[in-house]
Amino acid sequence: MEKGIIIRNYTKQDRVSVETIQLQTFFLGKPLDIKDKKRIHRTIGYYLEEESESCFVAEENGKVIGYVLGCLDDKKNQESILSYVWVIYGKIFILPFMHKSDRKFWSGQIIGITHALFGKSGEKNFIHPKNAGHIHINLLPNARGKGIGSRLLKTFFKYARFKGVKVIHADSFQTKLNPNKNFWIKNGFKEYSKVDTSFWKGYYPKENIQLVCYYRTL
Fold this sequence. Notes:
Blueprint (H helix, E strand, L loop, with lengths): L4 E5 L5 H11 L11 H5 L3 H6 L4 E6 L2 E9 L2 H17 L9 H18 L15 E7 L8 H15 L4 E8 L6 H6 L3 E7 L13 E8 L1
Parallel strand pairs: 4-5
Antiparallel strand pairs: 1-2, 2-3, 3-4, 5-7, 6-7
């Protein structure tokens, strides 16, 4: 167990720290450098605004260094994801006026979603377990490999069991650049579905990128 690190409930005062970590890990575990940060933060808005009691943070010397954001009923989170899709398509009209880094990122997101919708990548065959909860976890790079992520998960599992949740799942992009399969297996997860995806192809056109759903019974 890493000394000096505590796992605790998320509070509203942690929001800026959580959003900062999100940006520092959004790009296949690496920082995402764009100007329009608010739209990215919307992807975790449901957790922080509607189900903050299911969220936990890891803190070291008063600084948040990681988080696990939970949703006890994944149907609710899926609704927020659909609304985000419409936000992404709305970017089409302002792409020419964006900063270069933003234009590359949002163009890639639009292409990725379009490929998914029309079957040019594998997302139509991507499935989640039914009647399951969902988690989203991130750690700062210097906090990885120290057992902190496992501690966050154990805290959430205990909470979810108390709430009557039977199954938890998480989605993860898998590449040679982001090899995190061992983390999920070590923490009791199994592979539920896996598909090829077009997301991030704009940055790594030759990289084989897969979207994987991991699940675990509680």
